[in-house]
Amino acid sequence: MSEPIEFHRTQLAVPFRPFTVDDVHKFTGCDLKLVAFWYENLPIAYKSEAGFKDGMDYMGAFGVFCGWRWWEEAAGAERSSMVVNFLAHVKQEELEKHLEHGLAFPAFMPDENGVKLGMFVEVPDRPLGRKLDLRMLYGEFKKRLKDWEVSTHG
After folding, report:
1. Are residues 64 and 82 in contact, defined by beta-carbon separation less than 8 angstroms?
2. What value, to the nearest 5°, has the Cα angle with vertex 64 and ends 117 and 120?
3. What are the structural domain ranges in the chain?
4. What's the rounded Cα separation, in Å, for the pair 51 and 47?
5. Which residues lie across from 47 on neighbouring strands?
6. What is the pTM assigned to this prediction?
7. C-beta pairs of 146-149 under 8 Å, 24+ apart in sequence
8. What pLDDT was estimated at residue 115?
9. Concatenated DSSP letters of 92-118
10. How many CA atoms within 13 Å lie on the side-chain side of 66?
11. What distance in Å separates the CA atoms of residue 66 and residue 141, rounded to the nearest whole number?
12. What is the mean pLDDT of each run of 10 residues along the chain (154 residues)?
């Protein structure tokens, strides 16, 4: 008699359901028109395999949340939009690594062509810097998202 064949267990991959503009509005507190504006005008939308805009992923929603907080602190449309766009394109693991090392503030420097590139720097020791510290905003974002998920999905 031969040895029984052993089958390795695999994890079932559940398809990702992107957040809608309305979802992001509800759990971030960001003005719906502003969420929609950023979604339509910045390359932050999650794209389906067919290439269609299909909502936002986790980091896109985090970018919107942070951009909204910058907007509330009178950072202006251009600066707030840069924050949204920059954070939406950072991988979650990369963000968390920077936060662990104390690099918790987005800064922008122009390259040789004048294109402003984002980077993480230490939080400026000023009241506004402390209000916009990404470590604090990331914690608040995760709490808002969890509270929203509990309220909408039980």
Report:
1. no
2. 35
3. 21-153
4. 5
5. 53
6. 0.85
7. 147/27, 148/23, 148/26, 148/27
8. 83
9. HHHHHHHHHTTEEEEEEEE-TTS-EEE
10. 29
11. 9
12. 51 64 95 94 77 83 96 90 95 96 95 90 94 96 94 82
